[in-house]
Design goal:
Elements: E1 4-6, E2 18-22, E3 25-29, E4 35-36, E5 38-44, E6 50-57, E7 83-87, E8 92-99, E9 103-109, E10 117-122, E11 130-134, E12 137-144, E13 146-152, E14 159-167, E15 176-183, E16 186-193, E17 197-203, E18 211-217, E19 230-236, E20 242-249, E21 255-265, E22 268-271, E23 281-283, E24 297-299, E25 308-311, E26 319-320, E27 325-328, E28 343-346, E29 351-359, E30 367-374, E31 377-386, E32 389-400, E33 406-417, E34 422-430, E35 438-444, E36 451-452, E37 457-458, E38 470-477, E39 484-492
Antiparallel strand pairs: 1-23, 2-3, 3-5, 4-25, 5-6, 7-8, 8-9, 9-10, 11-12, 12-13, 13-14, 15-16, 16-17, 17-18, 19-20, 20-21, 21-22, 24-39, 25-28, 26-27, 27-39, 28-38, 29-34, 29-39, 30-31, 30-38, 31-32, 32-33, 34-35, 35-36, 35-37
Amino acid sequence: APSTFSNPVVWQDFADGDIVRVGDVYYYSASTMHHSPGAPILRSYDLVNWEYAGHSVPRLDFDNAAYDMSGGRAYVKGIWASAFNYRPSNSTYYWLGCTEFNRTYVYTASSVGSTWTKRARLNQCYYDAGLLFDNDIPYVAYGNGTISVAQLSSDLTSQVRAQTVYTTPSSIGTLEGARMYKRGNYYYIWLTRPANGQYVLRSTSPWGPYEQRQVLLDLPGPISGGGVPHQGGLVQTQNGDWWYMAFTDAYPGGRMPTLAPITWSGDWPVLTTVNGRWGASYPRPNLPWRPVASMVGTDNFASLGHQWEWNHNPDTSKFSVGSGLRLSTATVTNDLYSARNTLTRRIQGPSSTATVELDYSQMANGDRAGLAMLRDSSAWIGIRKDNGVTRVSMTNGLTMNTSWATTGTGSEAAGAAVSGGRIWLRVNANIQPGSGRTATFSYSTNGTTFTNLGPAFTLNNAWQFFMGYRFGLFNYATTALGGAVTVNQFAMT
């Protein structure tokens, strides 16, 4: 194995991470907002090479039909900074997160890749929660500006006690993104100042009083054009070393997991910097190297792996896998943002290419199917079928406002007649952080010779949608249900 590693350790969108070690295995849990299944889990053995391992929330079962696109939509709701931990006393993994309506849900599993089960709904919001098991007692640190600690019942279904433990001074601004740890005689609450600082609180009691220290502020990050690494959490290796996994804002692609070593001075954590910044590289953790599955490559949809997440909860009667991904139309709409069963995949940075082989022979009149660059400003390449005629189309101008209501359903920027029932669609996406990044669209009728279609699509790099751009596989009806397509292969290079 090489002697150093480079940041970001994962150049895909995995924000608000919580990181834990169980034995000699590391797990990282992240935010997914409106995507389903939610709260993905990555696995690593060396903190550097990661693979998809599971999802803590199999379906967004949050007592709101908008997650099913019924009577509304749930864009940018759902799963944000949440807690993930392992409890040795019962060999159980826990996920805990607040959704809208001031509700907190608890899911559990016996292993990260097994079926997770909803265990509790607490009718209060543990905002940006961090979960600690201390002598098997569950504590949650949470809050925005005003930081509180709650003790939960042993089964995490009710609150035993809660109190405010720290009020952020106005000179700092706001602190949130809590994680809670015990080291030696001290309890620590790890807090972010979005989006450019990290602070830590320390006390000998979970209930305080807490002292505060600044860990970093305005520290240049390792991604050219990206932001200051912050939020995330701490983990101690089996060798006793400590590491901090933050994320770096890197839009239009999203927020990328970024790793650095931590030392301790007088029982305070100190970030190891390189020439006054978060290192673009560091010496590798002193951990054994083990191979993990690649986060890119080719998928023939023998099954639906954890690299995939739907835009909102899918209609499970309208898709199947096994011999390709079969997508039957699930929604009659002229708005991709309101169509169910769009299957999404994170884009690999700093740039990558997605190619799909699409069988469109069973499309119905009025159907639209293809490959999208999906965010609050979107474009796609795909097949339009109207009056028995199929054409390949590059469509742009799909937009939402900051309330995530659709403001543009798009129009064709370029198109060409095609026939034969099979086509290859390709998007090359540059998600290096900054403005003016573009994606280009092309197609092939033989799988080898590709023709560019339409203008380059400029990606929106504002942060407010939180999720970065994703590749999206879609099929929706504008006239009537009944049509279908099959994605025989998806390849990301």
